[in-house]
Amino acid sequence: MTENNSKATLLADARNCTDGMKLPRDLYSSKISYLIRCHRIASLICVFSLLFLIAVTWLFSVETDPDTIQIIAILLDIGVPFAVLVMIINISKSRRNLPVTAKVELLREIITQRPAVSLELWDVVAAHMNDYLCASGVTSFPLYYYDGNDCHDHFKSLFLDSNAPSLAELPSEISDNQHDSNIRNDPNRDIRPIVDEAVKVYDQSVKDYWRQQLREASSQLPEYPGQT
Fold first, then answer.
1. Is the Cβ–Cβ distance between 122 and 151 less than 8 Å?
2. Whole-number Å distance between alpha carbons of 217 and 220
3. Which of 70, 90, 130, 148 is in Cβ range 3.0-4.6 Å of 142 for a Cys bridge?
4. Residue 25 falls in which region: left (phi positive, over 0), alpha (psi -120 to 50) or beta
5. In b/e form, how buried is each residue of 90-110, taking b as 16+ CB within 10 angstroms?
């Protein structure tokens, strides 16, 4: 099977796999509405709304200069929505840590699917992981990843943006104390072999993807007289 046929088969399988599994992207009108419903934001908004109502009630129950009331009301009108927006941004960038078994499952998906930067294949990984996390009791609903891009970003933050080097990256002259320190500081030290394997497969799949894209782009360039 050629590389083109292999890629086409993977993408066809991706479409078939996601046909029966809905991602939160398909269920919510926007990512903000997804975050509000599925994360702590809904509770926090309720708390801020209650505090806002208490503050307004207090303002009108005490004898205060009207100009002062107006200024405080304006500050509340601006401050509360701004605080909620900041919370949405912060929560969207953070998520609950995955248990080791879930990390291993994610790494296995990367090795199996070889998603590179294909959004369709990352959608498959996200759908499979949402289903796994719900079935294993990590989450109550299969809504952990909003879409494939969300899953891709999380994978990179867990395993590519880590400061801990792989065994292959450690210099040969490193001391025993430095080696022990690196191991202790590695958040994925217990699953380091499969992490290294998955990252290796991911890096190779990305190289293969862009090599194929370059080959396809080159084949579409017009040929001019005199070119060989």
1. yes
2. 5
3. 130
4. alpha
5. eebeeeeebeeebbbbbbebb
Angle at which helices 119-135 and 148-155 cross, to 10°: 80
The encoded tokens of residue 116 equal 């590179």
Q: How far is CA 148 from CA 25, 34, 103, 120, in A?
A: 9, 15, 16, 7
Identify the three-state secondary structure at position 228: coil
Neighbours of 167 (CB within 10 A): 11
Q: Which two tokens stand for residue 47?
A: 């708390």
- What lies within 8 Å, CB to CB, of 48 at 6+ separation is 80, 83, 84
Tell me 222's DSSP state: P
Q: How far apart are CA 165 and CA 158, in angstroms?
A: 13
Q: What is the pLDDT along the chain (228 residues), one digit of tens a residue?
A: 444 554 455 445 444 544 567 899 999 888 877 877 776 656 666 677 777 777 767 766 666 666 766 776 677 677 767 776 676 666 555 566 789 999 999 999 999 999 999 999 999 999 999 999 999 999 888 889 999 999 999 999 999 876 455 545 545 554 444 445 455 567 888 899 999 999 999 999 999 999 988 888 887 777 656 555
What secondary structure letter does DSSP report for 116?
Answer: T
Instruction: Tell me how far apart the alpha carbons of residues 85 and 48 are, in angstroms, rounded to a whole number.
Output: 12
Tokens 């100009």 sit at which residue? 67
Q: For residue 212, what are its two tokens?
A: 């194929």
Which pair of structure tokens corresponds to residue 154?
């999380």
DSSP one-letter string for 161-172: S-SSPPGGGS-T
Task: Return the SS3 of 142.
Answer: coil
